[in-house]
Design brief:
The mean pLDDT is 90. The protein is of the alpha/beta class. Bound molecules: S-adenosylmethionine (SAM).
């Protein structure tokens, strides 16, 4: 996958993956993500089409081969297809993905696939319509499900579904079983994610508890994941079409394998999700040769990646996941 040129940080990790947040705006209000009354970006604050593409071009030039577009809600950008098609055409970008809440995906999945998007992660925390609406501040489950179906039809592959384990309600049979049955029937990859300390204060449900519950009902066996360079551990329910994965930043941190950098929608580069350290790309993006200038910042940030999260003094708190892009 062209990993060989990617920068290596001070701890021997190859930094091959860049997440770019395209906006802080979102059409949902997930309890654990977005505190009430947060500031939202204005169009003037947010990276322009050209600046997003130049950031990706710089990433490709230093050997980063995977790019994920996130937000806020990236589908709120009308230029998403344009961004996707420009990035997909860059030599060296082997993997281009999108994270979305899926509310607006049904009508755009085919166009995004055509523009060159490889795969998609849809965040979908409950398959019970009322729970989904409550967790997302009024989201429509049917719309996100239509988005997942459209993504499968469009040939986006793999299609992953992100479920943040926000509270013990997920252990109830009415909440958990529908995910398992979905994975048995469809070639999708449902990943349960431990909620990180942050704005909403949702209680963290450890992955082990969910896995134990699944084992009571199903034959659960370790499985190869769908790929993608992320930290999930995967399982198959005997004979299932898809898989179930667990992402455990709290109960089993995976910093040793962290391969990523993040750029928020305002053009600040972050060496770690929890880092207060920021590298402002604005000046570099305005430079005469923005691609070389941004490339230099990317290499600098890669070198500054901490060995693990929480190294910086101060409480471990994500104040603005919606702004960072998860
Ligand atoms: N709007 C898009 C979406 O809903 O997927 C993209 C942005 S969202 C910030 C990206 C991912 O971060 C989502 O899967 C979301 O559930 C996750 N996320 C947000 N806050 C989180 C938290 N406190 N802990 C763990 N995951 C979180």
């Amino acid at each position: 996958m062209g990993h060989s040129r990617a920068p290596v940080d001070r701890h021997g990790r190859r930094v091959e993956y860049l997440r770019i947040s395209l906006t802080e705006r979102c059409n949902l209000r997930c309890v654990y993500c977005r505190p009430a009354g947060v500031d939202e970006d204005t169009a003037a604050d947010v990276l322009s089409t050209r600046n997003v593409v130049n950031t990706a071009r710089a990433a490709a030039s230093v050997g980063i081969s995977r790019i994920r577009l996130t937000g806020g809600e990236p589908l709120l950008r009308d230029d998403l297809e344009e961004i996707v098609s420009a990035i997909a055409a860059l030599p060296g970008i082997a993997d281009l993905s999108l994270t979305t809440n899926g509310q607006g995906l049904a009508s755009r999945a085919a166009g995004l696939a055509e523009a060159g998007l490889h795969r998609v992660n849809v965040s979908l925390d409950s398959l019970v319509p009322e729970t989904y609406a409550a967790l997302t501040g009024g989201g429509d489950l049917a719309r996100s499900l239509a988005g997942v179906r459209a993504a499968l039809r469009a040939g986006l592959n793999p299609v992953k579904v992100n479920v943040v384990m926000a509270g013990r309600r997920l252990l109830e049979e009415t909440e958990l079983r529908p995910f398992a049955e979905w994975v048995r029937a469809e070639p999708i990859h449902v990943r349960f994610i431990e909620v990180m300390p942050g704005c909403g204060g949702a209680a963290c449900l450890p992955a082990d508890e969910v896995l134990a519950r699944l084992r009571k009902w199903y034959d659960v066996e370790p499985a190869a994941g769908p790929g993608g360079g992320g930290p999930a551990k995967y399982f198959r329910l005997r004979g299932s079409a898809g898989t179930i994965g667990f992402i455990t930043p709290l109960s089993a941190p995976f910093c040793d394998h962290c391969n990523r950098l993040r750029v928020n929608a305002r053009g600040e580069l972050m060496p770690c999700l929890f880092s207060r350290r920021r590298f402002d790309l604005r000046a570099a993006l305005d430079a005469e040769d923005p691609v070389s200038a941004v490339a230099e910042e990317l290499l600098r940030a890669a070198l500054e990646k901490p060995a693990r999260y929480g190294e910086e003094p101060g409480p471990l708190e994500l104040r603005a996941m919606h702004a960072i892009g998860g």
